[in-house]
Every structure is written in structure tokens, then in C-alpha cells.
Amino acid sequence: MGAPPPPPPPPGPANPAQAVATGLLNLSCLGLGYVLLKHWKSAALCWAATVALLVVALPADPDGIPLGALVAYGIFLLAVAADGARRGLRAAPEALALPGRRGLVLPVALALLLVVPGGGSLAYGAARDEAVEQALLDRLAAADAQVKQSEGQSFTSVESTYKQALATYQDLGTEHAGSRAGKQVPDRLATYYKTVAAPYDKKDYCSAVPALKHLRALPDTVDRKLLGSLVGKADEPLAESWFECGTRTVGLAGAETTAGEHLNALLGTFPQSPFTQKIEPTLRANLSERDKKLAVAPCDTATELRRFDTTVALLPSATFAALGRDTKGAIQRGDFACGIDHFKKKEYSEAVSAMDDYAKAYPSSPQTAQARNVAIAAEIAQESPAAGTKVPSGATADGSGMVMVVSNDGPGEVELLYTGPVTGRITIPACATCRSYSTLIVPRGGGPKPCSGPSSKYPKRTLTLPPGNYQMLQKRDGSGASSGMRKPSATKIESGYSYTNCLYVTSGF
Questions:
Q1: Mean pLDDT, rounded, for 149-177
Q2: Among residues 199, 188, 107, which one has the least CA distance to residue 146?
Q3: DSSP state of 100
Q4: What is the DSSP string of 372-383?
């Protein structure tokens, strides 16, 4: 067996300076107090704790080292410092790693305490500052990506994305103005403005309106110093976009209200703008163009004019009253032209409806008499196409011409429509004692003949018609004894003759 290890040196006298030095050396984070005492296991424990702290702390995080790790490591350092001071208080000189230089221990301990933890803190602080800078730059890059991602899309569809990017720019430019990211914010805002305002640069004025309204309101949410020359830059483009979108869409389907909103916004927001002064003359030119289109596409244009009128009605009446009156005059011309167009295209049902509406809407119009005649001719033409060969004038029977006595030998009231050199309608009261004739008797000439009884029996009306060819339509409402009927006929009126016309009803067994 080998010789037993030599006994440890006897403890020396108490040495407070030595105790302080070993405690301070242990505070160096490197366990140097234990190294001085040659207590290698404890030194290794200190090294392991420091390595663990470095693993937690590196790479540097903008939020710093987790508080729990710092507190635990601080408690550990205080514990090893106290333990090092206890061990070094009575450590024998020969037990120290520097037995001949005990006088240097305390100054070295103080120096290491300043250099190692202090230098480490400074280095970590610099690393953390750089991490903060990188985090801010990452935020800036993310906001840039949001703006780039939204480029070319409708502003309203990506407005929330734009606003998220804008909030990031605002925060970086104000809360972190001194950072590398914060200093780049003004340039980024210039890019932001250009991207959002792209529809205006492409002359897509309607799409530009919401984007420019957003840009004009930037000073409400972003520091004016960051915006610089961008403040007020959107005013003139917005005025132009309101004007162009409002005047270009007036009269289009679905744009009646929005066109009025755009023009009213221009009037209220920029009353002195040159674009504001151009609204009334531009709308008037627009109205004139549509008035000319009535000769080409009367019905479609009349519909556009009604939409146009809806927009004009939304504008201040004091300024646009005359334009409103002129618009209603154009609508009246359009309604009449549309009815004539339906008749010419043989769209007789539509012509009847259009001209009846015109006569009701404009009873004092010079064209009302013709409108009524066109409606009559169109109704006859639905049964007898010959009535639609010529647009009737406004001429009506005036008491001159050949006499035609029309009698009603049938149940129920009867209406007779006629068109030719003149156009009109008459209504003959019901014949109380009259009945329908059998279709098996009248064509063969057997049995009683229509209107063959005493003249006083049959209600009558007298027409005076100029010579010419006439198309007629007998209309009789249904009654308990017979169903409703519409019977067309043709008549030629010649000079020097008088005529009788007996209206009766036939029915089978």
C-alpha cells in the first residue's frame, strides 16, 4: 500500500483582506477565488454556471437575458463569493496558488471584477443593442413587404394591410426615431404614398378616390415631421379624381348616388378648386351629348338621362337648378322619342305603354296628342299589322269629312279605335236588349241581321273622317253573357259618301 497523503496545512491566522480578495475573485464569474485556493471542483462548478448563463444569453436578444436566469445566477455568484470569502479567511499561505504574491491578490481581484463582469456587461449590452436594431429593421422590412404585397390591388380590399404597415412606420419613426430603421421611415413613407396613389397615376380616377382620401388623412395618424412634403400632396389629385369620376360616371347604371357623392365632396372640400368651377359646364356638355344621342338610341339614352337627373338632384339646387330643368326637358324628349322608336321597331306593346305614360306625365306637352295617337295605332297594330306601317301624326277628327255613324248591336260597352289620316277612339254605351249572333246564321245570311231593328234601339256615335284608308279595332269587355273580344277591321272612306258601321258580337253554339 502507498503512503498516506500529507495532511493539509494547518489553517493560518484570519486574513480579512485575503477573504475579501477570494470573494471578489469568485464574483468575476470565472470562479477565480476557488482557483486561487486550488479548490478545482468548486471552480469547475462556477465555470459550468457561467457557461450555462452564456447558453441562455447568447445570441443576444432584444429583450435581454430572462429575469429568472439573471436572478438565479446572481444568487449563485453571491453564494460562491461568500463561500470563497469563508474559505480564504484562514487559508494558509502555502495553500494559495500565488503564495509569494499575496499582496497582489486584492488589486488583481478588484481589476478582474471590473474587467470581466463589467466588460462582459458592456459587450452584451452592445450585442443586445444590435439585436434591437436588427429587430427594428425586421419590422421595417415586414412593413415594406406588406406595402409591396398590396401594390396593384384595390385599395379598399387591402386597406387594413396598408394601415398595419403605416402603424409600423409611425411607431418606428417616433418611438425609435434614432434607430437605423427609424431613420429610414421618411423614405419608406414616400414609397408608401407612391404605391397607394398608383391608380391616380394610371388615371383610374374612381379607384383613386378612396386611396387619395386615405393619403390626405395621413397627418391625422402619422407625425407631420415624418411626412414632410407629403402633407397636403394629395389635395389636388383628390379634387381631380372626385371631378373626373363624378362627371364620367354620371348617367351610368349603379353610379347615380356615388357620382353625386363625389361631386358634392368636391364642392364641399375644395370650393375654390378649378375642378369645382368645371362641374356645371362639364355636366351641361354631358347632357348635350346625351340629347344628341336620342336620335340614335332613344330608349337607352332616356334611361341614362333619368340616372343623370338623379345625380343632378343630389347637387346644391341653388347652383344646379337650371341644369336640373334642362335635364327634365331632355328626359321628356327622350320619353317621346323612345315611344316612337318602339313603334317603328314594331314593338307595339312597349309603344302603347311608353306613349300612355308620356300622355299622363306631360298632359300639356305639344307632343301629347301625337303620343295618344301612336298609342292607339300601336294597340290596333297588335291585331292588325297594317296599322303600324306609318307613325300617326297628332291629327284627330275635327268635324270635317265624311260622316260615319257607328252603332252598338251587342251586349256591353264597346270601344272603337281607328287610325288613318286621323286617329282616335270612341266609346259607345251598351245596348241593353242586344245579344250576340250565332256564327252559323250571320255568315250564311239566315236569321236576323245586325242593326236591323229600329234605329232608336242601338246606341250610336257619329264620326266625321277625312277620306282615306283606316284600320279599326273593336274592343269589348267581357260580360256575363259573353267573353271579352278584340276584332280588327279595315275601312276605306271616300269623298261624297256617308257610312254606317254596325258593331255586333258573334258566338257559336
A1: 94
A2: 188
A3: G
A4: HHHHHHHHHHTT
